[in-house]
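Quarterly update, task 2.4: glutamic acid-bound model.
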Amino acid sequence: MTTTRSRAERAARARTAAPQLAAEGIDGVVFGWVDNAGLTRVKSVPLAQLEHAAEYGVGAAPCFDFSLVDDSFTRTPSSTGPTGDLRLVPDLDRLTPLAAQPGWAWAPADRYTQGGAPHPGCQRGFTRRAAEAVGRRGMSVRAGIEVEWVAADAAGTPAAHGPGYGMTRFVEHSDYLREVLNALTRQGLAVLQLHPEYAAGQFEVSVAAEGPVEAADTAMLVRHTIRAVSARHGLRVSYAPVFSGGELGNGGHVHLSLWRQGRNLAHGGPGRHGLHPEAEHFLAGVLSELPALLALGAPSAASYLRLVPSRFAGAYRCWGLENREAALRLITGSTAEQANAEVKCFDAAANPYLVIGGVLAAGLAGLDAGLQLPPETRSDPATLGTADRLPTTLSEATDAYEKSALLRKALGRELYEAVLAVRRGEAELFATRTDEDVIEATRWRY
Ligand code: GLU
Ligand code: MG
């Protein structure tokens, strides 16, 4: 699990890393973090500044806790507007030379106050705290986020039109996809699969499960890498929830499994499909909190144009073995290691740290309360008169989030309120806009 290190330890790591990076031809290091709207923000330093940056961080305006998808800012009582400063501190444990951006390396960043304390609004810190809470119960979570994207040409038109999962698309983009695969692999990522998805120009990569913070870091790195490879092929990338109205969108499905002492609790247990009691309680906690969790995992007004029935997006609050229209799909896999649950209702606009941390917090609450899963949904929930539809607008999801004492406590007041303000701000931003306007305004932002 990632740990926080002292200033002296961080500086020492930078002193060791810098000559190695220089020998590899690296000139600068980019530090990434994801804001509450789901946009990845970066700052970079030349290699000569890495040690200072690792020790003290680089300046980061606190107002980015309140930035909306259009780069405007909202406020909360604890926001300081244009004043104040935070320190963006790279985690050099995850320092990665970027295969598709020669001369550059990347590291995910934690945010600290100027005094050196963890910033309570730091999303990565939230995921770390949630992972530690699981650890205190003698368990661990392994997670992974699938990355779907639309590749478009310079004019913004989807760059492949062949059938979903089609060989045509794969052949047309053979060199591009090979480079995506190689760049990810050279960066130490364990790619599991790469395929053309259903929507025009859409592709998907999945990577192996890891610890919660690592999985969120990986989601950021995978997306960054795909974008960089695409740029080298003259392609633009969209991770927006919806690229074209009426088509399948870009999901950000979260896979997770709960482990105790090297044993996957989603396999070989006495419960339904081999679930151990702890795994069932955990998943029941996630299922129960889904309407509020949507404010973390489906953060945009555009998210609700994706999250509709019959688009494989998981628009119903139910669970089922290999049920791709259920928000929670149980997967038994071919081996004990592979058994996991997939939360399908989340999309690619989500901040991966918020979504994984939120799911862990909900799962733990389910565990503590001993919640049971309801009866399984074995068919398309849209065909059942009884199915429980998830929120259908950003406002509705935000209302559920506002009522969630669980998420309020888990996120901590400052982060919870900042997310709330950003969701309300975006709901207001798009309140009077048509669906097409919302898609247009978000298509190239994530
Ligand atoms: N693109 C779909 C979504 O929006 C998911 C397709 C699939 O992988 O089943 O979630
Ligand atoms: Mg997919």
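Highlight for this quarter: Residues 314 and 327 are 4 Å apart (CA to CA).
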